[in-house]
Every structure is written in structure tokens, then in C-alpha cells.
Write a structure and sequence with these properties.
This protein has 15 helices and no strands. It is mainly alpha-helical. The chain has one domain (about 45-285). The chain is globular, with a radius of gyration of 22 Å. This is DUF2189 domain-containing protein.
Length: about 280
């Protein structure tokens, strides 16, 4: 009896460590692509975008409770960043943080893509089941691509701060009202707006091209990060007009969702997340 009492915990620990090791190995192995063949890309248009949005709304209506639980943290983080910028005397970073936070938005849709995939197949669509699928092969490339988007977001914040420094800076402003007054009533302020919006557009376009279908594809197929990103770029090349229209729709909906203290994102994010999955299904054979 004593040997079993001692042996079982030891055996269990060894098995758990072995399982963790296998999972880590699968995650690392999944980052690369053993099969570098890109899938066939379809031509999509306005009708496909409308259909994807309609199906996204249908998914949100059917999975409302689980979806809200999965995405509620995103607007909370956005609001917290805005409060930090105001309280830390970094009002010049308020707009870059709010405008740039959607750069990492595709990461927030991971669970939503899996829910839509499961609903298509008639499987369990709870958020716990969706998150449980993010293991082994899927986890490695998803985390890698998420880290890439985080780096792009950090570069945007650094660039926006540099633009402010050479226009309205480098002395910080005591209040948001003073900063807005200087921004809207001086030539330096308008220069900051024009240059900042132009550079911000380039960052947004980069993220759109890289992540348009990358995350849904990583959820759906046993491919690595390089193939997923290459497929996303191929979709953009095949459908430049549809991609631009989709980007404008996403930007407009995110702005509307942010206006009421980020609360609207609780609805906007799930709809866009589910719609992204259906857009992927229409664009990639």
C-alpha cells in the first residue's frame, strides 16, 4: 500500500510533465510549415462581404452568452489604457493607444473563429470548448502571429510618440483640454494629425494584409505561420478592392464601438470576429 501511495503521485507527475513536453513540442513544431503549398484563392466582392457580415450577426445572435464572456476583456483593456494615459500625464498617447489598439484585435477573435467553425459543423460551441482547441499544433503559430501583431502595435506607439515630439512636443500637456486646443488650433497640431493619420494608415494596412485570413486559417488547417501569412497576402493581391472595403468597414465599426467608452466593442468585436471567419471561408478554397 505504501509503495502505491508513493508511486502513484510520482507516476502522475511524470505523465503530466511528459504531456506538457509533448504539447510544447507540438506548439513549436506548429509554428513552421511542413507543407508550403498555398491553397486556391477565390475572387470575392461586395456580395461576399455582405454575406460574411450577415452570417457574423447570425453567429453572434445564436452564441450571444458565450461570445460576450469571451470578448468582454477586450474593451476593459482598451478603457484601462485610456485611463492610464490620462492619469499618467501622457495625454499625447491617448489617441495612438485608442486608435492603435485594434492592431491586436485579430488576436481577440481566436475563440470566435473556433466557435463559428464548430457551429458550421454542428459541434459544441461553448467558449470553453473553443479555447480547449487552442493547444499543441494550433497554439504555437497563433501565439507567434499574436506576438508579431503586438510588436507592430508597440512600433506604432513609438512612432506616434516620435511624431508628437517633433510637432507639438516634447513638453507634456497638463490636461486633455490643453492638448486638444493645441492640436486643433495650431499648424504644428494639424501637421501632427496629418502625418499621424498617414502613418497610422500604413500600420493598419500592414496588419490587415498580414492577418486578413491568417488566424482563421491557423484554426482551420494544419498549416504553420508562414503559409497562413502568405495565404492572407495572396487573398489581398487577388482581391485588393474587396480587402480595402473590408478594412474600411472594420475601421468604421470599431470607431462606432469605441465612442461610448469602448462598451460598443462588446457587440462589434463578436460580429466582426464571426464575419472574419465566414470571409475566410469564402476567400480560401
Amino acid at each position: 500500500m505504501t509503495r502505491e501511495t508513493i508511486g502513484n503521485p510520482l507516476s502522475w507527475s511524470v505523465q503530466r510533465l511528459a504531456g506538457v513536453g509533448r504539447g510544447a513540442g507540438a506548439a513549436v513544431d506548429g509554428i513552421g510549415s511542413h507543407d508550403i503549398t498555398l491553397p486556391e484563392i477565390r475572387e470575392i466582392g461586395l456580395g461576399d462581404i455582405r454575406a460574411a457580415l450577415r452570417k457574423g450577426i447570425e453567429d453572434f445572435a445564436a452564441l450571444r452568452t458565450d461570445v460576450l464572456t469571451a470578448v468582454v476583456l477586450y474593451p476593459v483593456i482598451g478603457f484601462a489604457l485610456a485611463v492610464w494615459a490620462l492619469n499618467a500625464g501622457q495625454v499625447q498617447l491617448l489617441f495612438p493607444l485608442v486608435a492603435g489598439f485594434p492592431l491586436v484585435g485579430p488576436v481577440a477573435g481566436i475563440g470566435l473563429y473556433e466557435m463559428s467553425r464548430r457551429r458550421e459543423r454542428g459541434e459544441d460551441v461553448s467558449w470553453t470548448a473553443a479555447l480547449a482547441a487552442l493547444t499543441g499544433r494550433v497554439l504555437g503559430p497563433v501565439l507567434s502571429l499574436g506576438c508579431l501583431l503586438a510588436v507592430i502595435f508597440a512600433l506604432w506607439i513609438f512612432t506616434a510618440h516620435a511624431i508628437w515630439s517633433v510637432t507639438l512636443g516634447p513638453e507634456p500637456y497638463d490636461s486633455l483640454l490643453l492638448f486638444l486646443r493645441a492640436t486643433l488650433t495650431t499648424s504644428a497640431g494639424w501637421m501632427m494629425i496629418v502625418v499621424g493619420c498617414g502613418v497610422g494608415f500604413l500600420f493598419a494596412a500592414l496588419v490587415l494584409c498580414v492577418s486578413l485570413v491568417s488566424f482563421p486559417m491557423l484554426i482551420d488547417r494544419p498549416v504553420g505561420m508562414p503559409v497562413a501569412m502568405a495565404t492572407s497576402l495572396a487573398v489581398v493581391r487577388r482581391n485588393p478592392v474587396a480587402t480595402a472595403l473590408w478594412g474600411l468597414i472594420v475601421a468604421a465599426l470599431l470607431i462606432l464601438g469605441m465612442i461610448p467608452l469602448f462598451v460598443g466593442l462588446i457587440v462589434v468585436l463578436p460580429v466582426l470576429g464571426h464575419a472574419t471567419w465566414h470571409l475566410y471561408r469564402r476567400a480560401v478554397v
